[in-house]
Amino acid sequence: MQLLTVRDYLEMSLGAANIVSNAVTARPNLTICLPTGRTPKGMYRELVRRRRVEGLSFFDVIFFNLDEYVGLAPEHTQSFRSYLRRELFDHINVGPANIYPPDENYEDTIRNKGGVDLLISGIGANGHIAFNEPGSILESRTRIVDLAQSTLDGMRANFTPEELPRQAITIGLATIMEARRVLLLASGKAKAQILARALTEPINSEVPASVLQGHPDTTVIADEAALEVFH
Ligand code: PGA
């Protein structure tokens, strides 16, 4: 695990966008697995800028999503499909049929596309990566999961009580561990406690992100606030 310490959210975003654009330039048909949430928005903004200003091409890139809510229409503004359209896909040159949201055939689809070259994830305040909530086992694959209470609490502001999704489909920890390269992003002091646990505790299922300690090519980009426990 390689840890890159950066000053703030902007530096984290630019560092992440650099890794993505270098990877896409080196391998135009890269297979990439993308996160949603607040953390990656700055990275997407920079990738969109590079498309517009530098002509970075994504035409042959294969895009997977880490996860998606169950029971939410794809066009709902809070669906992860909508999010990725809004933050990225609507502003870059995505090849037709190159976007794969998670479904029951996901493991086969990923395998048929040659596996994931680069997987990017944030870390939940409870230690989840994708929607592998605390308790997820290392052998887990793409599946439907019940969202943790702490995850639901964080979502309530964005949904009416009736539409609040209680389940999600997520790639598993085993799927994540098979990605050739993983990029974990963390910004802000709200992530400091859990990031410290993920980096220093022995790998344990209460902190699912800790599994990445066992991944051969993981880069963590974290800003100073997210690393304040170590100061
Ligand atoms: P956030 O979510 O980027 O909105 O903090 C991270 C996550 O839950 O994986």
How would you characterize this protein structure?
It is a single chain. This protein has about 230 residues and is of the alpha/beta class. The protein contains seven helices and ten strands. The chain has helices at about 10-25, 40-55, 80-85, 105-110, 150-155, 175-180, 190-200; strands at about 1-5, 30-35, 60-65, 65-70, 100, 120, 145, 165-170, 180-185, 220-225. Strands 1-10-9-6-2-3-5 form a seven-stranded parallel sheet, with helices on one face. It starts with a strand and ends in an 8-residue tail after the last strand. The chain binds 2-phosphoglycolic acid (PGA). 2-phosphoglycolic acid binds near residues 37, 38, 39 and 122.
Radius of gyration: 16 Å
The hetero compounds bound to this protein are:
2-phosphoglycolic acid
Output the number of helix runs. Answer: 7
**What is the distance, rounded to the nearest whole angstrom, between the alpha carbons of the first and last residues?**
19 Å
CATH topology: Rossmann fold
Return the CATH class: Alpha Beta
Order of helices and strands: EHEHEEHEHEEHEHEHE
* Strands side by side in the biggest sheet: 1-10-9-6-2-3-5
Annotated CATH architecture: 3-Layer(aba) Sandwich
